[in-house]
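Recall that a protein's primary structure is simply its ordered list of amino acids. Everything else, from secondary elements to tertiary packing, is in principle encoded there. The following example makes that idea concrete.
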Amino acid sequence: MHLRNLLLMTVCYVGLVSTGYGHHGGGAYFAPDQVVGPISGTATAFSFTFPHVSFSLDVPDEQGNLVSHSMSIRWTPTVLRRIGWRRNTIEPGDKLTVTFVPHKLDPTIGALRTLEVNDVPVAIEPPPDEAE
């Protein structure tokens, strides 16, 4: 019986520890020492889903060609709802102005730092006591 309990405890421990490693930190993907922007463009998509909220926007380059950018937000919809976000916070056609930390391999992918929707600042960080 003692060996059986030890085995059960070991399996539970390994299961709990491994789930902690399942979530990723942004440092593996993004260049935290760089911030791009502000840049402005037009919203093309908005995904208010788990695990992270994301959106896309078309930004004109120097020649006037539209370049698609994709942004992700650190927080889940649950956390963002607490600070006023809804499924329609960003709608296609909205003017977006963003600053972001770029992806290490693709400068059109970013981790959002600041956001304005139609020239109105939108909070992207919950108060410290409400963060998950």
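The chain is about 20% helix and 35% strand. The chain has a mean pLDDT of 83.
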